[in-house]
Amino acid sequence: MGAPELHTDRLLLRGWRESDLAPFAALNADPVVMAHFPSTLTRQQSDAMVQRQHEHWADGGPALWAAERLDTGAFIGFIGFARANFDATFTPCVEVGWRLATDHWGQGLAVEGARAALAFGFGSSGLDEIVSFTSVGNRNSRRVMEKLGLRHDPADDFDHPNVPAGHRLRRHVLYRLSVERWRCG
Fold it and tell me: In degrees, to the nearest 5, what angle opens at C-alpha 25 toward C-alphas 8 and 114?
């Protein structure tokens, strides 16, 4: 099974293509895009991430979609789901996330695409809860989470176990959205 396609007013969320690899690697190597991650990614790490998405979709998903602008056909990054690969009080969980090239920031595209992903997650995938998390200082992603209706409780904040102790990005905030709250809009 491949990735189902989701359409919004301005985006196509679709499966990954070979032609996405180079622009995705450039995005992952951009220090501005990756400012809230411990490091940028090499081409090999970026390609491996795409391969994992193919595998996740083949296993029934959900996973990350490649995000494409409908008006230009340009690949702009990803929007979709990941499963946390660490132990925490809220895991196992499904996280909604996004990573877009800087040219596409500030246009509401992450919110638009993530809304479609949430509808898929709560509808077709039957999830009961979807979370999102980021480093404390990532104000842009936190705004997206809030616009999506995810709620933050400071009691849920945590030290990300995959970020080294003492690193400036170790402390993370957790946002949650239950299917019941999502249905209530």
Answer: 25
The helix/strand/coil state of 112 is helix
Helices (DSSP H) in the chain: which residue ranges?
A: 21-29, 43-58, 109-122, 139-147, 179-184
pTM score:
0.95
Tell me, yes or no, whether 92 lies in a domain: yes
Q: What is the pLDDT of residues 129-169, one digit of tens each?
A: 999 999 999 999 999 999 999 999 999 999 999 999 999 99
Return the number of other C-beta atoms located less than 10 Å from residue 72's C-beta: 9
Domain assignment present for 177: yes
Query: Which residues are within 8 A (CB) of 119 and not within 5 positions of it... i.e. 6 or more apart?
Result: none
Phi, psi of 22 (to 5 degrees): -65, -50
Q: Count other C-beta atoms under 10 Å from residue 10's C-beta.
A: 17
Residue 11 lies in a domain: yes
